[in-house]
From TrEMBL:
Molecular function GO terms recorded: ATP binding; ATP hydrolysis activity
GO BP annotations listed: double-strand break repair; iron ion transport
Annotated keywords: Cell membrane, Ion transport, Iron, Iron transport, Membrane, Transport
Bilayer topology annotation: Peripheral membrane protein
Protein known as: Predicted ATPase
Keyword Cell membrane assigned: yes
Superkingdom of the source species: Bacteria
GO CC aspect terms: plasma membrane
Length: 241
C-alpha cells in the first residue's frame, strides 16, 4: 500500500488568475474557496450535495492529469460532447517521485460512450468485449475488473449509479485489491456503502468549503441510517408536508 509521500497525486493548487472573472466556477462556494488540496491516503472520497462542485473538481483533476473528459484510459481520444469546465487549465497537480503505470477515469453519466470505445479498442487488441450486450451494471463492473490493476491511478465519478448494493460491495473488494497493490483512488460518491472503505479520507464540499469529515458525519450515512431505522415515520412526515 502506498505511503502518503508515494501517492501518484499528493495534491493540487488552483491558479485563479487563469479563470475568467465571470466564470460560473467563482459562484460555486467550495470551489471558490479552494486554493490548494492535499491527498494523504490511497483512497479519497468527495461528498456533498448536488451542485456543491465535487464532480466539477474531479473532472478537472482527471483532465489535468491527461484523461479524456468522458472517461477511459490515458490513450482514449474520442469525444461526443465537450462539456468540461475551464478549471483543469487552472489546476497544477502535485505529483510524487512515484509514477503510476496505469490509470482510468470512469464516470457513470458518460459510461455508454466509454463502453462503445472499449468495444472498439478490444476488437483491435484481438479480445473483443461486448459491453452493450450486458446490463448497465454488469458492463460497468466488467470494465472495472478488466481495467483496474496494480500501480494505477483511478478516478471514479458516482460509480454507485450503475451498481446494485451487492455490486457496490464487489467494487469495494476490487478497490481493496488494487490499493494493496499500490494503487490510488479519488472517488465522488453518495453511497454509504462505498464511503465505508476503511481508513479512507472523506472530503465534504458542503458549507462552502472542502474539509475532511468522518464517515458517520456524512449525510449519506446519516440519512440512510435514519430512513432504515424509522422508515414509516419519515415517510409519514414527508408525505404530510
Amino acid at each position: 500500500m502506498l505511503e502518503p509521500n508515494e501517492l501518484y497525486l499528493t495534491g493540487l493548487k488552483v491558479k485563479w488568475d487563469k479563470i475568467e472573472r465571470c466564470s460560473y466556477l467563482r459562484k460555486i462556494a467550495a470551489i471558490k474557496a479552494l486554493d490548494e488540496l492535499t491527498f494523504n491516503t490511497p483512497v479519497t472520497f468527495f461528498v456533498g450535495e448536488n451542485g456543491s462542485g465535487k464532480s466539477t473538481l474531479l473532472e478537472a483533476i482527471a483532465v489535468a492529469y491527461g484523461f479524456n473528459p468522458e472517461g477511459g484510459t490515458l490513450n482514449y481520444s474520442f469525444s461526443t460532447y465537450d462539456s468540461h469546465s475551464e478549471l483543469h487549465d487552472a489546476l497544477r497537480l502535485v505529483r510524487s517521485f512515484n509514477k503510476a503505470k496505469w490509470g482510468y477515469f470512469l464516470r457513470a453519466e458518460s459510461f455508454y460512450n466509454v463502453a462503445s470505445a472499449e468495444e472498439e479498442y478490444t476488437k483491435i487488441q484481438g479480445e473483443p468485449q461486448h459491453y452493450h450486450e450486458k446490463s448497465h451494471g454488469e458492463s460497468f463492473l466488467s470494465v472495472i475488473q478488466r481495467n483496474f490493476s496494480q500501480n494505477g491511478l483511478y478516478i471514479l465519478d458516482e460509480p454507485e449509479a450503475a451498481l446494485s448494493p451487492q455490486r457496490q460491495l464487489t467494487l469495494l473488494l476490487e478497490i481493496s485489491k488494487c490499493v494493496k497493490n499500490d494503487s490510488q483512488f479519488i472517488i465522488v460518491t453518495h453511497s454509504p456503502i462505498l464511503l465505508g472503505y476503511p481508513e479512507a479520507t472523506i472530503l465534504s464540499f458542503d458549507d462552502g468549503e472542502i474539509r475532511p469529515i468522518g464517515y458517520e458525519d456524512t449525510q449519506s450515512y446519516q440519512i440512510t441510517k435514519m430512513f432504515i431505522n424509522d422508515r414509516k415515520q419519515i415517510l409519514r412526515h414527508l408525505f404530510e408536508e
